Amino acid sequence: MNRPKIRSLSRKEQEKRWRQHQAAKRSERNIGTRNTKIRATGELAQIHLSSCAQEYFLAQMAPFSLKSNACVPDLHSIPSKKVRVKTRFTFSTGADGNGFAVCCNWCNASGGSAFLASTSALAASSGVLPLGTPNVGFVTQPKLPYASADFQATGSTPGVQARTVAVGMRIRYIGPEIARSGQIVGIRHPDNETLVNLSYTNILSYSTSKTYKNDRRWTYVMWRPVRPEEYHFSADPETASDGVNYKWETGFTITGTTNSSGTPGPAPFEAEVIRYVEYIGNIDNVTKSHVDIVGMSHIRNSLPVKSTTQKPGKMLQHAVKHIEDSIGESLPAAAAGALGYKHLFSSEAASAEAAEGSSILDVLGSFATDAVAALPEAMETLGPLALLM
């Protein structure tokens, strides 16, 4: 197909039109299935991530857009039961116009108090208050397949173990427009410790917090693992009843809401949480997992420090560019192909997230089928290092 001629336009505008033209043609041919290869623009050759790494990346960066289950592509490639659960609830700021909703990211049992939130009857709050405080409510996750008792050993048979793959939480204001006011703070504790008993001033001081005006748009916050043990399976279902030590590590605080007369008062919010979990043990419906250490390394390095946003598409685009650059710097094209990274991570993949609910997996594609063909050249390029892989 010949490139259409575009005159009287700047070079930048011509390139933009050409990309739009290419995208339209791909759409006409129904390109976008997992097995379709889409070529990247620019100097970088095609890049590939394994399907498990793709899903893990999207679960971390855009958890509400991923429509499948996910696993962690590390060395613990144990066949596991992969679960994706969404929980929805409403909460309110208190009588003083302050409130919160926080999430326990390792609460992977169905009976655990996974979410802690203020109610309209709360008289006053100076920060995130613990479970057991009057007029502070909690929400469980009944859709999870295992209760806390399933994590306990039965005789010589070990119980279920679980690990969190990803957690995303989002909130939005649902009250009358005339009363919409106040400030939202999205927060992930930088050390993944509990936010309970921290004041609003403490929370604002963290580099991982970010402020927004109260809005009807979704405001997002995503959990990030920060310690090696957070990648491991655990037999602890995190169902402790002690509200101080219970690890609610991510969520939101809201301050300064008012009623229609302008005085401090309660304001209603809607919350959604999506959780991706892997379970192992004497259980059914397990599926194979994958090892993708190189891809896992690039994904971890691409995750931003601030994991709260109102624009997940923009955040995802930066992460995609980071992976694109880091893979391009660390591996020659032939070696990248041999290791399974010869498919693209293009800007088109990132911009697809801007449309709510679109699946970027369609753009990212699947594992490279021609990786083996590139292996001899890659071995020569990598030298002795290749023998260790």
Distance between the termini: 41 Å
* Total of helices: 10
What is the percentage of strand-forming residues?
15-25%
Order of helices and strands: HHEEEEEEHEEEEHEHHHHHH
Features:
389 residues; alpha+beta; Jelly Rolls; 2 domains; 6-stranded antiparallel β-sheet; 5-stranded antiparallel β-sheet; 11 strands; 23% helix; disordered C terminus
Protein described:
- The chain is α+β, with helices and mostly antiparallel strands.
- It has two domains: 30-67 and 290-387, no CATH class; 81-280, Sandwich (Jelly Rolls), CATH 2.60.120.
- The protein is built from ten helices and eleven strands.
- The relative contact order is 0.21.
Summarize the helices and strands and which ones pair or pack.
Elements: H1 11-28, H2 51-61, E1 81-92, E2 99-104, E3 115-118, E4 136-139, E5 161-173, E6 183-188, H3 200-205, E7 209-213, E8 219-222, E9 248-255, E10 268-280, H4 293-302, E11 308-309, H5 312-330, H6 333-338, H7 347-351, H8 361-364, H9 375-382, H10 384-387
Antiparallel strand pairs: 1-10, 2-3, 2-9, 3-4, 5-8, 5-10, 6-7, 6-9, 8-11
